[in-house]
Design brief:
5-stranded antiparallel sheet; alpha+beta; about 170 residues; two-stranded antiparallel ribbon; Bacterial Protein-export protein SecB
Length: about 170
């Protein structure tokens, strides 16, 4: 006995009619890690930490027409050359994409999907850091279209990452 959901029926009808399908199936925290190698001594340090943020977007096919997109961020805070904390997280989303023209698919994967996932990642990073007893780091908004264009301009051999200057981070 098989049962079809309304979403499955709509997908099948759209695929039959040739209408492109773009649907978010799920957003989830795929991985998160936090290191505070100099705790508790680092809590005695005075001053503002230097913050470095690295961001990466990747994707892979799950099954035909279903793609997982992952936004990974690594945030490193240093005070007096000591690491205050290092946090890395991967926020992922599963998207159903069918009938999207090939020349548009790369832009959807590099701009639209990360734009949907990133707010969840920002919230998870802020929450994780708040639980350490430290003030949260509020990651800056990202223009994924500019990041996509930047990656498109690089050679295929270059590692795709973005370093956000510390001045663009907000600490509260």
């Amino acid at each position: 006995m098989t049962s079809e959901t309304n979403s499955d029926k709509q997908s099948a009808a759209s695929a039959a009619s040739g209408t492109p399908i773009f649907q978010l199936q799920r957003v989830y925290l795929k991985d998160a890690s936090l290191e505070m190698p100099h705790a508790p001594q680092i809590f005695l340090e005075q001053g503002s930490p230097q913050i470095e943020v690295q961001l990466d977007v990747s994707h892979e096919s799950v099954v035909e027409g279903v793609i997982e997109v992952v936004v990974r961020v690594t945030v490193t805070a240093r005070m007096s050359e000591k690491v205050l904390f290092l946090v890395e997280a991967k926020q992922a989303g599963i998207f159903e994409m069918r009938g999207i023209p090939e020349q548009q698919l790369a832009a959807v994967l590099g701009i639209v999907c990360p734009g949907i996932i990133y707010p969840y990642l920002r919230a998870n990073i802020a929450d994780l850091l708040t639980r350490t007893g430290l003030p949260p780091i509020h990651l800056a908004e990202i223009n994924f279209e500019a990041l996509y264009q930047q990656k498109a301009g690089k050679s295929a051999a270059a590692a795709p990452s973005l370093i956000i200057p510390p001045s663009s981070q907000t600490r509260q």
